[in-house]
Amino acid sequence: MPKHPAEPFRIKMVEPIQLQPKDKRVEAMIKAGFNIFAVPAKDVFIDLLTDSGTGSMSQSQWAAMMEGDESYAGARSFYHLKETMEDIFGFKFFVPTHQGRAAENIISALMVKPDSCIPSNMHFDTTYANIRARGGSPVNLVNDRAFIPTATDDFKGNMDLGKLESFIQDVGADHIPFGSITITNNAGGGQPVSLENIKAVSKIYRKHGIPFFIDACRYAENSYFIKTREPGYADKSTKEIAREIFSLADGAWMSSKKDALVNIGGFLAMNDEELYQNVCNELILREGFPTYGGLAGRDLEAIATGLREGLDEAYLAYRIGQTAYLAERIQDAGFPIILPPGGHAIYIDAGALLPHIPQHEFPGQALAAALYIEGGVRGCEIGSIMFAHEDPETGEMVYPKLELVRLAIPRRMYTQSHMDYVVEVLAEIASKKETLSGYRITYEPRLLRHFTARFEPIQLQPA
Ligand SMILES: Cc1ncc(COP(=O)(O)O)c(C=O)c1O
Questions:
Q1: Element of type H or E holding 131
Q2: Which DSSP string corresponds to 358-370?
Q3: Which ligand 1 atom lies nearest to the CA of residue 50?
Q4: Among 53, 147, 392, 405, which is disulfide-ready with 401 (CB 3.0 to 4.6 Å)?
Q5: What percent of the chain has pLDDT over 70?
Q6: pTM exceeding the 0.90 threshold for the entire prediction
Q7: Is the separation of the CB atoms in 289 and 72 below 8 Å?
Q8: Which residues contact 240 (CB under 8 A, 6 or more apart)?
Q9: Average pLDDT, stretch 128-145?
């Protein structure tokens, strides 16, 4: 197989994009309070802010949407999705939700209490915030190798089993309403988790009677990594691997905006009937009737088709190959990145690149701002803006171990020359990295501040 397999599709419809002149990009950033989330998409040339809901749908998905049944209750489209869900995930019950965080909200509303602790390898920011919003404590127990950006372990998303065992002993299983694992580990570099690790995690949770829920956003990419990296799985299909993964859990939630190749949608799945009844009640309150859950019938059709396409191995080989291609070229341009490259994104180690900017001045923000100003490329800070917080006991700031900028690759969207352009912009930034300054926050909300915070460059302040 070629190192970077070509797209197993050809382009039938195009969407124009435009590179604004540099003075307009600077203007857009000032107006946005230097928060890249606040820059209008029309002013972005290559948008690598997220791989979530930003991909291209296939002709089969668009065709399926035309068959969407928009009945309020019991729509045909729901049963199409149900069939696919049973085939791939095998849980007894599921409800659609409008996206992943809606599923997180529902499970948190029902299961998290103020003294609850929820372990995971690493919680994504919305999961983290949903647990905190119910007064619970999300706890990250990923293995320590995950924090060594240059370590090239195959499964850097693995849970540290020793830490999990002692955590359960310390807080007591009765304070853990459910345990989780995120595949792949988005907050930790998009690194996969091995099946061996998922099996062991499941065994520990089960031993302590703790329900095990998987955050399944990128389960297909994770399954492909298992197939290509974990001994014993080369001859299994990605679908067989996925079945094995989910057979080890009591439930899962998923943002379908990733590996189901759609622009909106999610679900919460489980085996426990009583939980399902409570989920339905909560769903009706917040999302909609259980056979549509905040989505249109056509969305359900697109998800049903996309879930199958997302497991296609020719697609996954191209997808993982494209990420690896960008990683190799970025490294050639002299940028430190998290190794090995994950499935959906490249994570640049902005802390290592910009050692003159301390964590409290947000090196990731400095790099993300420069990427946009230099080349109209939008990436996302995954560092202190997203994760630094005050320790409730000591009042001191707790900073994350890594200051990253994530370049997430939308699915089936950009070509190799788009990737080459991104590398050229990065090379330009590398040549003047000492001139990049830190930032200070001028406004921040209580939770999930990275979405709406405003900043100013520190150098622009009068001395
Ligand atoms: C691992 C993980 N979990 C949960 C979510 C939340 O999903 P959504 O954006 O659909 O609410 C995301 C989104 O990026 C994610 O990457």
A1: helix 125-133
A2: -GGG-HHHHHHHH
A3: 14
A4: 147
A5: 99
A6: yes
A7: yes
A8: none
A9: 96
